């Protein structure tokens, strides 16, 4: 195995800490912010999140085309850390600005800022995934680097979950509008600094001498790329489930359990997912990537069932927290595996079509799925809350409490089961990896100028 340096590993981890400092703050708290702080109805908030996802259907492929045509002295993926870190951080701050305007203008402002930060997140997060295939050609080392990335991701999530609401309360002095606005700049500045660190230290070392191809040529790498379609389907369902789970946590703990004080701890349990991330290289070696992936998803389903058991047995806080922790523990493998194998699907596309398109395949296969899942995972619970009679900052009706339970327990469980179905078919393509790597290495040695042609 071709080992990468500690500097590369730490810097790759830093790139995901950077992304999570803003994205986690937005995705975990935006629905609650819109309904209970900014004053939008649950239906309007859900619609804002959905409309933003419609833009993803356009912006992810466009970003992919841009990435495929990027050529610079720093490489194809790396320069985007430099170019987009400031706009991404800036719009992250603007998303939590609360202008005192009418209801229609509020919705318009929320839509514009949320769409902007979402589009920019695609632009800066996709290179974090696409650069992986350029950092090493070794599939096992890619799993290791993905684990380091997950360490960074979980560290970023932990920092936000343990500190965000406390900072909102401390800086807001009882005014959550002021608190959110004064808190987000801290995460935005940290995000910029870490992206610049990643830009400085990450180097694209895998040879890529393919000429700049026509704008739409990269889409041909999708044709017949069945492992990529498996990754896309499973990832989309996973992110809907994951974000539905965390975005409804404030409602579950405040209104159903009457324990608002547990919200930071509950979502802070995300850090224990590092347990499965640490075991991931060993699991993949001892079993397979497919089995490790399925194990993570199945463990999350089990966690949802334990949460339900806690709610059904007298709202047992200890049992609910146990299920919540189990779900997060298992999520480490379920979340990490798609980010690792997306690089293998880039190799599969090159092997099958002669076209290497890491930017496009990761823009749609990773960033689009994450964002679309995050939007739908926030929008669907919002609609459930609206349909069941939820009203912010008041005692909830039995119908509204059922809507909260559906959004926090059964909606995530359903989509996690759906995510398992395509993964069950991944093994046959995983077994092809040694043959694919050998043939690609032979092509790069004997006919370097031919790559990019069919």
List the defining traits of the structure above.
454 residues; mainly alpha; Growth Hormone, Chain: A; 77% helix; globular
What does the model show?
The chain is mainly alpha-helical and 454 residues long. The chain has a single domain, classed as Growth Hormone, Chain: A. It is built from 17 helices and no strands. This is Putative 2,3-dihydroxypropane-1-sulfonate exporter. One of its GO terms (cellular component) is plasma membrane. GO terms for molecular function: symporter activity. It comes from mine drainage metagenome.
Largest sheet: none
Percent of residues in helices comes to over 70%
Instruction: State the CATH architecture.
Output: Up-down Bundle
Number of strands: 0
Question: Which residues sit in consecutive blocks of at least 5 with pLDDT less than 50?
Answer: 448-454
Whole-number total of structural domains = 1
CATH class: Mainly Alpha
Would you identify the CATH H-level superfamily? Answer: MFS general substrate transporter like domains
> What is the H-and-E element order?
HHHHHHHHHHHHHHHHH
Give the structural class.
Answer: mainly alpha
Give the amount of beta strand, in percent: under 5%
Give the overall form: globular
How many alpha or pi helices?
17
Q: For the record, give the distance between the C-alpha atoms at the N and C termini, rounded to a whole number.
A: 30 Å
What's the average pLDDT? 88
Radius of gyration: 21 Å
């Amino acid at each position: 195995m071709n080992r990468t340096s500690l500097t590369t590993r730490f810097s790759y981890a830093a790139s995901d800490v950077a992304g999570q400092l803003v994205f986690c703050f937005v995705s975990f708290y935006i629905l609650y912010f819109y309904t209970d702080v900014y004053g939008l109805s649950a239906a309007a908030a859900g619609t804002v999140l959905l409309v933003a996802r419609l833009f993803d259907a356009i912006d992810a492929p466009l970003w992919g085309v841009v990435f495929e045509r990027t050529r610079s002295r720093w490489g194809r993926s790396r320069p985007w850390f430099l170019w987009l870190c400031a706009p991404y951080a800036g719009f992250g701050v603007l998303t939590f600005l609360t202008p005192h305007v009418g209801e229609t203008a509020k919705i318009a402002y929320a839509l514009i800022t949320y769409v902007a930060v979402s589009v920019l997140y695609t632009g800066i997060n996709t290179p974090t995934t696409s650069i992986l295939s350029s950092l090493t050609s070794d599939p096992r080392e890619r799993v290791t680097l993905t684990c380091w990335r997950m360490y960074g991701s979980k560290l970023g999530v932990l920092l936000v979950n343990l500190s965000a609401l406390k900072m909102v309360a401390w800086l807001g002095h009882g005014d959550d509008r002021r608190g959110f606005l004064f808190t987000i700049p801290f995460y935005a500045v940290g995000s910029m600094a870490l992206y610049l660190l990643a830009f400085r230290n990450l180097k694209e070392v895998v040879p890529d001498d393919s000429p700049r191809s026509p704008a739409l040529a990269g889409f041909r790498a999708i044709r017949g790329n069945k492992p990529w379609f498996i990754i896309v389907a499973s990832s989309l369902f996973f992110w809907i489930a994951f974000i539905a789970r965390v975005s409804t946590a404030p409602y579950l703990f405040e209104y159903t359990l009457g324990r608002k004080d547990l919200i930071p701890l509950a979502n802070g349990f995300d850090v224990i997912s590092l347990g499965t991330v640490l075991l991931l290289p060993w699991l993949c070696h001892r079993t397979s990537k497919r089995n490790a992936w399925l194990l993570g998803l199945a463990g999350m389903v089990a966690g949802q069932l334990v949460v339900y058991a806690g709610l059904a047995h007298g709202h047992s806080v200890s049992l609910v927290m146990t299920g919540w922790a189990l779900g997060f523990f298992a999520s480490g493998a379920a979340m990490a595996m798609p980010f690792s194998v997306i690089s293998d699907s880039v190799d599969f596309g090159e092997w099958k079509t002669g076209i290497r398109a890491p930017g496009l395949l990761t823009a749609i296969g990773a960033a689009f799925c994450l964002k679309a899942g995050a939007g739908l995972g926030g929008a669907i619970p919002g609609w459930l809350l609206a349909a069941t009679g939820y009203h912010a900052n008041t005692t909830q009706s039995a119908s509204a409490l059922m809507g909260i339970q559906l959004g926090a327990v059964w909606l995530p469980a359903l989509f996690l089961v759906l995510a398992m179905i395509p993964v069950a078919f991944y093994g046959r393509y995983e077994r092809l990896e040694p043959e694919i790597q050998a043939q690609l290495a032979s092509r790069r040695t004997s006919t370097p100028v031919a790559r990019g042609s069919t």
